[in-house]
Amino acid sequence: MSRGVEGGDEAGQLEALRRRLRELEGENEALSEKLRRLKRRPSRLSGLLLLSLGGVLIVFATVYSSLIPAFIGLSLTFWGALLLYVRPVRYVRRELAVSLAANTHTSLRELLKETGYTSRALYLPPRAMGEQDKGSLLVSKGPNLAASATSRSQGESSHPAGTSCLALTPPGLDLARLMQRELGRDLATVDLEYLAAKLPKVMVEDLEVAGEVEIEPRGDVVSVKVSQPLFPIRLGEEAEAAGLDCLTSAIACILTWTTAKPIAVELLTSSGDTLEARFRILGA
Amino acid sequence: MVFPLGLQELTLWLAVTAIILLATAELISPQYGEVGLAVDRKRLRNAAVITGLAFLATVTLRVYEVIAT
After folding, report:
1. Stretch A246-252: mean pLDDT, rounded?
2. A99 touches chain B (CB under 8 A)
3. Under 8 Å CB-to-CB from A246, ≥6 apart: which residues?
4. Which of residues 10-49 of A touch B (CB under 8 A)?
5. In the 3-class helix/strand/coil scheme, how is A124-147 assigned residue by residue?
6. Do A86 and B47 touch (CB under 8 A)?
7. Prediction pTM value
8. Which of A4, A123, A217, A266 gets the highest tally of CB atoms within 10 A of its CB?
């Protein structure tokens, strides 16, 4: 009888999850439509218009040997070309990017919560050569996977055997790849000092995902402080599932590439608009 | 049919344009979303630097002309 009730509960939860998934898909569709509309900004049209008008004026100035149309034509041509060149094709509005990322993050967290995989994230390095920009994320049921892995790496024998784990693609993997592309280096060939010096610039000036970033490697611990992140930080009651947000995940992925060792998100705190994270390099 | 602008005019035009672009590229907010202007900052900076270099090249050319004559 009780088994029947449990079965009914599970079916209800499954139905609720499916409903939530449909809602999220609907929101995703609406936001994608909004993104398509944003992409049709008139900057391309303005650029082409300026370019063609400038061209006509340059021809006119050449035919009639006139100085003023030549200056105006040259300027219009230049600014038209510049408008086309600096056109923000890769940019979307901050609110839109945040809402898209938040949906994915929320659904992942809810899914893990529902299925009981609530341990902190453990990031694993790529498994083979030729997969340098890959990696996976491990979460477990019950005991804190990162803590048990840390104690294992420190030689302690007390770790739970047969822990049920779930391997996922890290939510920040693409962002990490983007950072690597902006850096222009294979991150498997650099050291932590190089990362500490160069990664903040990429995050602040090139990708603009944060206002200020400090990375401080100290032994087998890397402390990261991110101020004014693009994606708002929501910790609190779900702190146990921390380490799954896009930015923390991307930094953890990069650390696994550079060190070729598993990375545990050891501490994650937020105060105001500042996120502080501490990553432990396991087996260092 | 001759293009009416000479090297001197081009130098002046490049100088003004380079100053505008360099100032814009430096002053534009690093925090995307806080400003109404949406541009690729890296490309804008590249364009500013190239324009500045083009201005310096015309100046060098002028200096060379003066020395040669």
Report:
1. 86
2. no
3. A101, A105, A171, A172, A175, A231
4. 41
5. ECCCCCCCCCCCEEEEECCCCHHH
6. yes
7. 0.57
8. A123
The dihedrals phi and psi of A34, each to the nearest 5 degrees, come to -65, -40
Q: Give contacts of B44 with chain A, Cβ < 8 Å.
A: 82, 86
* Residues of B in Cβ contact (< 8 Å) with A67: 4-5, 9
pLDDT tens, per residue, chain B with 69 residues: 788 888 888 899 999 999 998 888 887 765 555 445 566 777 888 889 999 999 999 999 989 988 988
ipTM of the complex: 0.77
Q: What is the mean pLDDT of chain B?
A: 82
Q: How many helices (H) and strands (E) does chain B have?
A: 2, 0
Task: Look up tokens 């061209």; give the residue.
Answer: A55
Element counts in chain A: helices (H) and strands (E):
8, 7
Please answer yes or no on whether A206 and B2 come within 8 Å at the CB atom.
no
A95 CB neighbours in chain B (<8 A) are 33
> Predicted confidence band at A155 (pLDDT cuts at 50, 70, 90)?
very low
Q: Calculate the average pLDDT of chain A.
A: 78
Query: Residue A82: its chain B contacts at CB < 8 A?
Result: 21, 44, 47
Using an 8 Å Cβ cutoff, are A98 and A123 in contact? no
Q: What phi and psi, each to the nearest 5 degrees, are found at residue A266?
A: -90, -40
Asked if A62 has any chain B CB less than 8 Å from its own CB, the reply is yes
Q: Is A55 on the interface with B (CB under 8 A)?
A: no
Q: What are the pLDDT digits (tens) for A188-212?
A: 888 888 888 888 988 887 787 888 8
